[in-house]
Specification:
Order of helices and strands: HEHEEEEEEEEHEEEHHEHHEEHEEEEHEH
Number of strands: 20
Strand content: 25-35%
Mean pLDDT: 97
CATH architecture of the largest domain: Alpha-Beta Complex
Radius of gyration: 23 Å
Shape: globular
Structural class: alpha+beta
Distance between the termini: 32 Å
Number of domains: 2
Number of helices: 10
Bound molecules: FE2/S2 (inorganic) cluster, fe (ii) ion
CATH class of the largest domain: Alpha Beta
Length: about 375
Amino acid sequence: MDHAEQIVQLERLLDMIENRKTSMAESVYRNPVDDYTDPEQFEAEWKRLFRRLPLVVALSCELVEPGAYLTEDRVGLPALVIRGDDGKLRAFANVCRHRGTKLLRGCGVTKRRISCPYHAWSYTRDGALAHVPRDGAFSADINLGELGLTPLPVVERHGLVWLVPSVGAACDVDAFLGSAAADLASFAIEGYHHYETRSLRQAMNWKLVVDTFLETYHLGSLHRTTVFPILHGDVGAFDPMGPHLRNVYARRGLENLRDRPRSEWDFIEQTAIVYVLFPNTVFVMQGDHIETWRVFPDPNDVNASEIVLSLYTPEPTKTESAKRHWDRNMDLLVRTVLEEDFPVGEEIQRGFYSGAQDHVVYGRNEPALAHFHAAVRQALV
Ligand code: FES
Ligand SMILES: [Fe+2]
């Protein structure tokens, strides 16, 4: 997003604040309660969204040096993403080609050879089979050279890493991102540093978790003392971006920009920019850091999700005072969702089964909700 476009967005927010407006949908959106509870739809979402679309698995800064790897088990198969000695990022099924043992756990940096814990077959960092103890017991009948790790499609773009968790699938991230790509490219995300990742489990459908981030209508009530003093309530400059979306929220103080020359207007400093990178990543560009909230359904339970929150900082954290600062940030994020948003979300999820109503309604002032749920519906057709 260039400076001219940033000024356009800031003007838009100023107009909203000054005239008590926000982005409005054409009409109210009535969403069937089943959208959050129906096991058949849930199964279709799992197969067609989570197993077929590119999912954000990391920022590039988490996988910098040769041998840096992470494993991801929330995507329906055990996946391994690893930086090769040639600097290229690759992904594989995290499955030994001998008898199927899981090769690596968690994240870190591997030795030059990835050794299977079961019978010590070993692989290079680019997935080739490197060594088989007593290889003569196999080589008469099979070509060991063909038993490299099974590749998965992975693409690194704009400082983010996308994986399609299905063997043999395609991964055209550029086409998939469409107009969201230019925004992401402008943030120089590759220069950020990973600070911390935490995982939360909630009794909420995955879409209800995403909904949490899509409007500021609730700030003045649910977050009166936490987020509301920081962001304007019921103000958001919404733009659809194919199945993805952007919703720009205004920090308090943005209303004073009129007193300063436009050349000094700093978009990032004055806003919180929320993207949904479809289907399950909420990417938040904050004034001084990046947050990603990646939401994974529990494939066995329509009412349960795992939320993976990561915080990234523009500079590496070197001093104790910087560490205290980011710890406080992380604690505030976690406390706000755990004490305010998610308890309400869990009650909403239970209330869906009450028979109280067939539909929930998203107001015209909640256009991102309507867009997100319409995009899910569209992707399932
Ligand atoms: S299963 Fe990996 S070496 Fe046997
Ligand atoms: Fe909230």
